[in-house]
Specification:
mainly beta; four-stranded antiparallel beta sheet; 161 residues; globular
């Protein structure tokens, strides 16, 4: 989306990026991230584009929302606690935010297990992107699933069988 601004940018335009979308398991909402208010925040809307609701509001980056399979929660990545990025979950009203990972290294690209008990993510804890998983309630420690000198990224669970 390109919109005219009042001289805020030298060329008179601001580019707003929307992305990280995903439809809810019940197909009633779409979650997405947008920098329409300068920094990236998490939003939801109806599938027809109506009723856009901003769920997060802070000066840091809240990105890449991922729906839990069975209850109305989103996982997302954020640097809101002064980290490079950690995984958080929240309810659909934007409250009940819970930090799931806590690491000085980046934890990104969250995805829920089909039963909602775990979240897989990419972490660079050894300086290289690897796939990890952790309990969705944040209990326990992360389990490393890959160990390769190449970058491992974008985990995605297979659907329920």
């Amino acid at each position: 989306m390109v919109t005219t601004t009042s001289g805020a940018d030298p060329d008179g335009y601001t580019v707003s990026l929307d992305g990280g979308n995903g439809q809810s398991p019940a197909d009633t909402l779409i979650a997405f991230m947008s920098n329409r208010d300068v920094d990236f925040e998490i939003y939801t809307m109806h599938p027809d584009g109506s009723n856009i609701k901003q769920l997060t509001e802070n000066t840091d980056r809240d990105e890449l929302p991922a729906w839990s399979p069975d209850d109305p929660r989103l996982a997302f990545q954020s640097n809101r606690d002064g980290t490079s990025a950690d995984i958080y979950t929240m309810s659909l009203d934007g409250f009940s935010v819970q930090r799931i990972t806590s690491s000085s290294d980046a934890n990104r690209f969250p995805t829920w297990s089909p039963d909602g008990s775990e979240i897989a993510f990419v972490g660079d804890r050894d300086g290289n992107d690897e796939i990890y998983k952790i309990n969705a309630d944040g209990s326990g420690s992360a389990t490393r699933l890959t160990n390769d000198p190449a970058t491992d990224a974008f985990p995605h669970w297979s659907p329920k069988q």
